[in-house]
């Protein structure tokens, strides 16, 4: 059943969009990521214009993240104080990100920027997470005790310290604010919740326990992507309500299922699965970035004769 999307100006199968929303919602509930790092490229692959894909996907992430947060609230695995510090940085970052997005859209460079950002960030984060998780799994299988994270790093020497009781941490508020700031910029430019950056940063940089990271990440993502959607809708007019609704329905259902699956897997298993998916999307985008321009130039040359 094809449905016409008024802002995107294309017709797409409604069941395909519901399925994509459900799959990304599943990942949201399992890993604490918004899922935009997968959904935005997938929307572009099926013919949605990049500007519309970025702005509309941010809207879908709000719903799937909210659904995931509800599931984690029942398990009391959300650090609200840490989430609010991350959120403060995220709101500032998303404001500047939307301004940058609008500027680049006027220059006609949005598609190139989105693709390059994805390839760089997904490649670096996915590679580091995959190596670390693989090492952790090898150590656990060999019977060796997995080394715990260092409790005292340069992060602990910074000023403006706060006590985060749910995470059992006493650290500076500056690193979580900066992590939130970066995620806010990514949410605006790439149409992502930024969980694929924030989850590793919360574990390895801030030293948060893995069981609290997922729910706290979703809490921050929910508000930042909501703010980003509002800015895109009022400034860039690129939010497609019909597309957002279909993705939203699938995402809410998928997030509830994902949260149930996530608690049954070990932390290192969750991380290596997430890393594998990040690297697959990165490889696909890199392939398209390298191959597509050659075909376009060929078509353009053929059309000119």
TrEMBL record:
<feature type="transmembrane region" description="Helical">
    <location>
        <begin position="212"/>
        <end position="231"/>
    </location>
</feature>
<dbReference type="GO" id="GO:0005886">
    <property type="term" value="C:plasma membrane"/>
</dbReference>
<keyword id="KW-0812">Transmembrane</keyword>
<keyword id="KW-0472">Membrane</keyword>
<protein>
    <recommendedName>
        <fullName>Probable membrane transporter protein</fullName>
    </recommendedName>
</protein>
<keyword id="KW-1133">Transmembrane helix</keyword>
<comment type="similarity">
    <text>Belongs to the 4-toluene sulfonate uptake permease (TSUP) (TC 2.A.102) family.</text>
</comment>
<feature type="transmembrane region" description="Helical">
    <location>
        <begin position="37"/>
        <end position="56"/>
    </location>
</feature>
<feature type="transmembrane region" description="Helical">
    <location>
        <begin position="84"/>
        <end position="104"/>
    </location>
</feature>
<feature type="transmembrane region" description="Helical">
    <location>
        <begin position="12"/>
        <end position="31"/>
    </location>
</feature>
<feature type="transmembrane region" description="Helical">
    <location>
        <begin position="270"/>
        <end position="287"/>
    </location>
</feature>
<keyword id="KW-1003">Cell membrane</keyword>
<feature type="transmembrane region" description="Helical">
    <location>
        <begin position="110"/>
        <end position="131"/>
    </location>
</feature>
<dbReference type="Pfam" id="PF01925">
    <property type="entry name" value="TauE"/>
</dbReference>
<dbReference type="InterPro" id="IPR002781">
    <property type="entry name" value="TM_pro_TauE-like"/>
</dbReference>
<feature type="transmembrane region" description="Helical">
    <location>
        <begin position="177"/>
        <end position="205"/>
    </location>
</feature>
<feature type="transmembrane region" description="Helical">
    <location>
        <begin position="237"/>
        <end position="258"/>
    </location>
</feature>
<dbReference type="InterPro" id="IPR051598">
    <property type="entry name" value="TSUP/Inactive_protease-like"/>
</dbReference>
């Amino acid at each position: 059943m094809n449905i016409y999307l008024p802002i995107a100006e294309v017709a797409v199968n409604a069941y395909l969009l519901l399925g994509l929303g459900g799959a990304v919602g599943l990942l949201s509930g399992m890993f604490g990521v918004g899922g935009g790092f997968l959904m935005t490229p997938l929307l572009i692959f099926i013919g949605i214009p990049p500007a519309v894909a970025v702005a509309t996907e941010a809207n879908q992430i709000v719903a799937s993240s909210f659904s995931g947060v509800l599931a984690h609230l029942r398990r009391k695995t959300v650090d609200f104080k840490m989430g609010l510090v991350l959120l403060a940085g995220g709101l500032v970052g998303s404001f500047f990100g939307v301004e940058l997005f609008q500027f680049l859209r006027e220059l006609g460079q949005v598609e190139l920027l989105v693709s390059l950002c994805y390839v760089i960030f997904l490649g670096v984060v996915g590679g580091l997470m995959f190596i670390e998780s693989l090492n952790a799994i090898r150590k656990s299988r060999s019977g060796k005790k997995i080394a715990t994270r260092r409790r005292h790093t340069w992060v602990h020497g910074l000023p403006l310290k706060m006590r985060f009781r749910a995470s059992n941490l006493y650290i500076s508020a500056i690193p979580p604010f900066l992590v939130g700031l970066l995620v806010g910029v990514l949410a605006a430019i790439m149409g992502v919740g930024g969980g694929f950056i924030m989850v590793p940063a919360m574990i390895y940089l801030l030293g948060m326990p893995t069981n609290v990271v997922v729910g706290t990440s979703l809490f921050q993502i929910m508000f930042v992507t909501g703010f980003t959607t509002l800015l895109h809708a009022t400034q860039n007019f690129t939010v497609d309500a019909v597309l957002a609704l279909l993705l939203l329905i699938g995402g809410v259902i998928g997030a509830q299922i994902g949260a149930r699956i996530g608690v049954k897997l070990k932390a290192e298993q969750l991380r290596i699965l997430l890393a594998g998916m990040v690297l697959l999307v990165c490889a696909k985008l890199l392939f398209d970035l390298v191959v597509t321009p050659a075909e376009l130039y060929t078509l353009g040359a053929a059309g000119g004769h």
